[in-house]
Amino acid sequence: MRQLLILPFLAVPAFADCPPPPDISDAATALLERAQAAPNEMAAQGISGQLWELWATAPNAQAQALLDRGMSARASYNFIDALDAFDRLVDYCPDYAEGYNQRAFVNFLRQDFASALVDLDLALERSPRHVAAISGKALTLMGLGRNDEAQEVLREAVALNPWISERSLLIEPPGKEL
After folding, report:
1. Domain contains 95
2. Domain containing 62: what range?
3. What is the pLDDT of residue 9?
4. Does 130 reside within a domain?
5. Does the residue 15 lie in any domain?
6. CATH of the domain at 120
7. pLDDT over threshold 60, residue 11
8. Would you say residue 101 has pLDDT above 60?
């Protein structure tokens, strides 16, 4: 008989395998191309929302419940429960980038920039064009005082989506226009 790991509002088989994350690469590429072609920030906002929908689609119902629980806890500034949910999510679905990205966001909010950076790198290994993780990495590097590196990473994010709000943090290099 298979053991159950009981989570609040969720029962997950203890040794169940998480299915592979959905392949969103083609859809994400199409949305990023639309964002790059958007005439203004207002037009790009809906596209960014569609990207978030892709990233926040977990591999199965159990993973989605953990993601949703963690995001809800984070939104309530309950970082202990949020970290617990995201820890469980990355343990259960180690190939799902958004689990790492969300855990990084909680650690960023806690100003644990070193932990956030580790998770952002893990998210980006799994989803290299995840604009939110890239811009989050730039902000985290700023938090660590690594501003030159942060500017390089932020430029990568802006190249993928020129309308992200973090673009306002770009510093024009001497002698160059942005």
Report:
1. yes
2. 25-31+41-169
3. 46
4. yes
5. no
6. 1.25.40.10
7. no
8. yes
Amino acid at 164: I
How many domains, the chain? 1
The angle, 0 to 180 degrees and rounded to 10, between the axes of the packed helices 113-126 and 97-109 is 160
Q: Closest by alpha carbon to 142, among 132, 154, 159, 124?
A: 154
Domain assignment present for residue 13? The answer is no
Asked if the model's pLDDT at residue 6 lies above 90, the reply is no
One-letter-per-residue 3-state SS of the chain: CCCEEEECCEEEECCCCCCCCCCCHHHHHHHHHHHHHCCCHHHHHHHHHHHHHHHCCCCCHHHHHHHHHHHHHHHCCCHHHHHHHHHHHHHHCCCCHHHHHHHHHHHHHCCCHHHHHHHHHHHHHHCCCCHHHHHHHHHHHHHCCCHHHHHHHHHHHHHHCCCCHHHHHCCCCCCCCC
176 band by pLDDT with thresholds 50, 70 and 90: low
